[in-house]
């Protein structure tokens, strides 16, 4: 069980390597939502996404505990960069298995951190086979994108900072904190730390209709597959693991799904009004708030903006 | 002559209505430039651009001094929004003459602030004729986009904040502060306040090659026209006035020109690495720094990022 103490240790471990990111507000979006929104800007995080946190927490421990002499993982994007970045900090080689369909800007960024990219077919099976091959050849240690307590503890530190900065002490606690859900690493970390630091706060997830596995798993209690996978939110296509599902079932209030047009509209609203670049996956929680105003009216709401790594050559506008 | 006291009064006057905007840094861009860059993020300002400052300082004085019962101006974009926004703050009607070619997002924003948009042909003559007609019909007071001491004093407050926050007291003063130049309101205000608060700091302007009037005027001492006007930097197409030229000749060190491809590359670098949305005009000073590394190597540099009002349907990527 991931205790508060373990998350605090994770935060202390990664703090020298990460940004304590900004929290922004926007009057126009507040008016549109009928609520008071606080956006935790992990698009300004190292590597352009919150995944730096979990990747660092895992890789720093691999290095400190001498668990291996190289790191590997599979990822469609941000976790790949996170592991490459983290491996460079500790001086270990990194081998990153990426689907050949991943955005070029993300492959380039991984190579920019000095890691080796190994391309594979865009299926979970091909990705896992690629990682097994790397491990057999190099003895590298796997840092899984989400099915790893060290990664979850790292991801939890984003909501930890948000709560510490805007929802504790003399300040009114958040009514709701929202995060998107893909494999569930961020969501389960967010749910745990919110339970520890701000127990009256609901945690709600946003999920794309075109990758709607988490809502099914949340209801059935089993890890389910999505009925179909077709969404612009390319960071959220993975399914939960037993580990993340258990935490989510215990500590998350609800999962709300949104369509791709709703995601794109929310993304465009943030670009036009907040003047910051967020990736489609990132816009899912805001899209959920705008879709269900009755559930959020008048609330103080925290939203984790997860990343800003967009291929500018392939925008949906 | 615009004294330090007048700029301080302008800042006190507009402070309740504006954001004290963030200053961001980025390691990748510093490495690329070989210098230490501080970006003053006026893209996060009210109306999405620094022009809120000058517009407010003028309109607040029109209202307080009972100089008129309506406001008018002509502008291709951000000044239009600034005046519309400022007029709404004081409860005066605003009539904004805009070229019919101005981005739709800017026309919509002006109307969103409750102002009336009067479209005209995209020439300076048509714009000035449009304003004269409005003044004759409505008795509105003109707030010129740059040829107005009150506007210049307002624009000066952006660099004032930058210097106060990062270049005074125990901190090393800036070696250089850069701003783009169109009509010269921002540049002359920036040059004046820098002279007052940080006299060892050079002020340098960036100008598009496709609207290169200021560099000619700077050299000749006369207000010159650009040889041709064709640039993506749509906020910088205007020529200087006698007023702004005099200040610029007295207090600006140099004007550097950049091509549209250089502007687009700098804009893309900021979008991809800083994850913030800036308009093309805004990228001109960074393009100048990247083009002339010899002139800026090792320096502490402030750059005014002027605005983020981009038509997402018409991106140059």
From TrEMBL, chains A, B:
GO molecular function: ATP binding; carbon-sulfur lyase activity; D-serine ammonia-lyase activity; L-serine ammonia-lyase activity; magnesium ion binding; pyridoxal phosphate binding; serine racemase activity; threonine racemase activity
Family from the record: Belongs to the serine/threonine dehydratase family.
SUPFAM superfamilies reported for this sequence: Tryptophan synthase beta subunit-like PLP-dependent enzymes
Entry's Gene Ontology BP terms: D-serine biosynthetic process
Entries under CDD domains matching the protein: Thr-dehyd
One Pfam assignment: PALP
Keyword Lyase part of the UniProt annotation: yes
Keywords, in A-Z order: Lyase, Pyridoxal phosphate
Gene3D superfamilies: 3.40.50.1100
Domain Tryptophan synthase beta chain-like PALP span(s) in chain numbering: 15-307
Cofactor: pyridoxal 5'-phosphate
Name under which the protein is recorded: Pyridoxal-phosphate dependent enzyme
